[in-house]
Amino acid sequence: MKDIKSIKKLYIDKIKKLNVHNELYYSKNKPTILDGEYDELKKSIIELENKYNYLNSKDSPSKITGFKPSKNFKKQKHKVPMLSLSNIFNKDDLLNFEKKIKNYLNLKSDQIFEYSVEPKIDGISASLTYKNGNLVLGLSRGDGYEGEVITENLKTIKDIPKKIELKNFPENIEIRGEVYINKNDFENLKEKFANPRNAASGSLRQKHSSETEKIPLKFIAYTFGLFEDNNFKKQSDFLKSLKKWGFKTSRYNAVISKIDELITNHQNFEKKRYELEYDVDGLVYKINDLNLQNRLGFVGNAPRWAAAHKFSAASSFSKIINIEVQVGRTGALTPVAKVEPVNIGGVVVSNATLHNEDEINKKDIRIGDVVKIERAGDVIPHVISVDLSKRTSKTLKYKFPEKCPSCGSKVEKEFNVQTKKFDAVKRCSSEGFSCEKMAIEKIKHFVSKDALNVDGLGKKVVEKFWEKNFIRYPQDVFKLDYKKIENLDGWGAQSVSNLKYSIDKSKNISFNKFIFALGIRHIGQENAKLIAKHLQKKEKFIEIDKNFDFNSFLNIDGIGEIQILSLKKFFSNKENLNVVKDLSNYLNIENETLNETGKLRNLSFMITGKLKDMSRAEVKTIIEKNSGKILSSVGKKLTYLIIGENPTTKKVNQAKELGINIINQKELFKLLNWVK
After folding, report:
1. Helix or strand or coil: residue 363?
2. CATH code of the domain made up of 314-397
3. pLDDT band at 195 (very low <50, low <70, confident <90, very high)
4. 100, 357, 443, 576 — which has fewest CB within 10 A?
5. Measuring CA to CA, which residue among 570, 523, 617, 560 is closest to residue 418?
6. Are 215 and 181 contacting, i.e. CB atoms less than 8 angstroms apart?
7. What is the pLDDT of residues 145-187, one digit of tens each?
8. pLDDT, averaged across the chain
9. Coil, helix or strand for 6?
10. In this predicted structure, what is the pLDDT of residue 156?
11. Distance separating alpha carbons of residues 193 and 33, to the nearest angstrom
12. Phi, psi of 161 (to 5 degrees)
């Protein structure tokens, strides 16, 4: 067994090696190892940290996440964010993607969409801003919200027009596309770059455009960003115009209307992907109707109207050494197969999820089995099947624990009130923070990027602080003894100062982020926003245990019985109540403020009956965007009752008795000065 000194030396050497390769890739654009080797190095560092909790470094890949614009370039915010796409891997995913669109738009199940289908080129995204036909600004994607100013570098690419003098070319437009390198051209660059994608990235981020010019970069245009005078009705029409304006577009672009045709096209394209002149890792589907795109908008950081249908995931076989159970923030027990390390798509995999007990039993997965493991993009590797031909008498059946491996509490399956079935996942039955693993995960969630966003308080640091008994509850983050932290290995005055600054900064938080940060089961970011908007005042939430009518949440679109039961369960625990109230003393929680400048300000609305061509959710969003208020019941405060097909008679009669204005969908649009 290695001693602590030798383990620390191994760890430090790996960190130093990683720093060298980060410098070569990000600053000098001269990577010397393959992506797979680079990923393997990072993974080995994280595995060491997981095994030996005294290992810690600010340069660890467990702390450094995402990609920030290089310091070598000026930075500029995108006027329209360059966000990511949700992923599709099979027909069921595709059907679900389309179903969600139809539900949101309140369309019939047999509604047929036109999809603009475009190859997903494995390159680097870039945006081009034109004013009066002149290319005035070029940005890299960066982190999606802020990119690097690489105008001069982009101008060296022959496929990118520098000046467009056509009369029909928009006065102001941002055109987006992919910068890439053909496979054949890359053959001459193998010694300089790890792969075509790295070559494109490294070349675009040269300090001097003369260096970029030496690389045979290509550009394919595929969409627009800011486009104020957009009169196009279809994505496919815009793509045709791009070609007329002098931009290159993919010759494989197509318009397809049926799911089965999309699947067939995807299968055929996957077979010939290796024949293409450039790397492609899937197909992009976009609702072809730009008006529908606008109506659908975005959810989270991805558009509702587009998705990337990835090609088959890389897979391989390995042997299960052991099965361990991890306990998550909500108490979910997830079995993980510890497998003999295997390289899948350039990444060494040693863990693969088994999802739940039912999945293990259904596939008859045993310790010692040789199994097929699949890895798809950022999805956690998972076990697909067992190779029964290689099963021996030495394999062991796995018995799922009846008690939580962390706290010893009983594990159970919860009854789902919607499906009327028990959940597949078993959960720890403890509440509050009595389960160590759950508590740690709750604190990790509390300080995470989407919650308080405390920089410097990553997952490993939280675990370290727990080990040192610095934290036991979320509010302990604001009670930290910085002198004690400074004495820890890997910490110094500057790093402690940075942590304190980040914690102090996080104290100013919006109402919805505060709700989300608590990590209440079934209350994600969107539900947290809905609850905050409904309550408006933080005091109502903090004192929610005092005779609060939880059923009032039923009047919120998106909040159902499951969410209400989860809230009740959370607030029935005294420990949770104390956490919420204690946190309110440390945080500056901003009350939810409504837009008061729209055309529907000072007006209140309620909807009854089925609306035409639009869902209630969409109409309510429109009303709220225009400063109107949605009420859950008919009363004196109600200004308008909007009726659709088959309205509730009782509500209509109540409105008549109170003299409330009863209008239909058309009349609502008249209030907005819409022509619909």
Report:
1. helix
2. 2.40.50.140
3. low
4. 100
5. 560
6. yes
7. 888 899 999 999 999 999 999 988 999 999 999 999 987 888 7
8. 87
9. helix
10. 93
11. 9
12. -65, 135
For the structural domain made of 604-671, what CATH number should be given? 3.40.50.10190
pTM over 0.70, yes/no: no
Name the DSSP class of 311.
P
- The superfamily in CATH containing domain 75-310 is DNA ligase/mRNA capping enzyme (3.30.470.30)
Cα distance between residue 400 and residue 361, in whole Å: 10
- Supply angle C-alpha 216, 221, 226, rounded to 5: 130
All residues at 6 or more sequence positions from 298 whose CB lies less than 8 Å from its CB, including other chains? 83, 304
Clarify whether 271 is annotated catalytic: no
- Report the candidate in 644, 633, 588 with the shortest Cα–Cα distance to residue 606: 633
411: three-class secondary structure by DSSP: strand
Interacting residues of 254 by C-beta distance below 8 A, sequence separation 6+ = 116, 117, 265
Fill in the amino acid letter for 508. Answer: N
Could you say which architecture CATH assigns to the domain 431-506? Orthogonal Bundle (1.10)
Classify burial at 92, counting beta carbons within 10 Å of its beta carbon; exposed 0-12, middle 13-18, buried 19 or more.
Answer: exposed
Superfamily covering domain 510-590:
5' to 3' exonuclease, C-terminal subdomain (1.10.150.20)
What is the average per-residue pLDDT within 519-531?
89
451: nearest Cα among 395, 374, 520? 520
- In terms of average pLDDT, the best of 182-186, 379-383, 422-426, 513-517 is 513-517
DSSP assignment of 339-362, as one string? EEEEEETTEEEEEEE---HHHHHH
The amino acid present at 458, given as its one-letter code, is G
> Are the C-beta atoms of 381 and 341 separated by less than 8 Å?
no
For residue 279, what are the CA distances in angstroms to 42, 126, 263, 270? 25, 17, 20, 11
Total residue count of the chain as it appears in this document: 676
If residue 567 lies in a helix (H) or strand (E), which one and from where to where?
A: helix 561-571
User: 4-51, what's its fold?
Assistant: Helix Hairpins (1.10.287)
3-state helix, strand, coil in the chain (%, to 5): 35, 25, 40
At residue 550's C-alpha, the angle toward residues 630 and 553, to 5°, is 25
Catalytic-labelled residue, pool 120, 444, 460, 651:
120
Please list the residue range(s) of the chain that carry CATH number 1.10.150.20: 431-506, 510-590
Output DSSP code: residue 261: H
Q: Are residues 221 and 249 in contact, defined by beta-carbon separation less than 8 angstroms?
A: yes
CA atoms within 13 A on the CB side of 133: 9
The structure tokens 């939280």 sit at 462
Q: CB-based burial of residue 121 (10 Å sphere; 0-12 exposed, 13-18 middle, 19+ buried)? A: buried
Please, where in the chain does CATH 3.30.470.30 lie?
Answer: 75-310
Q: Sign of dihedral through CA atoms 670, 672, 674, 676?
A: negative
Is residue 175 within 8 Å of 128, Cβ to Cβ?
yes
Location of each CATH 1.10.287 domain in the chain: 4-51
**Residue that wins the pLDDT comparison between 306 and 275:** 306
CB within 8 A of 573, min separation 6: which ones?
Answer: 431, 432
CA-CA distance, 374 to 315, in Å (whole number)?
Answer: 4
Q: Which two tokens stand for residue 314?
A: 């890389």
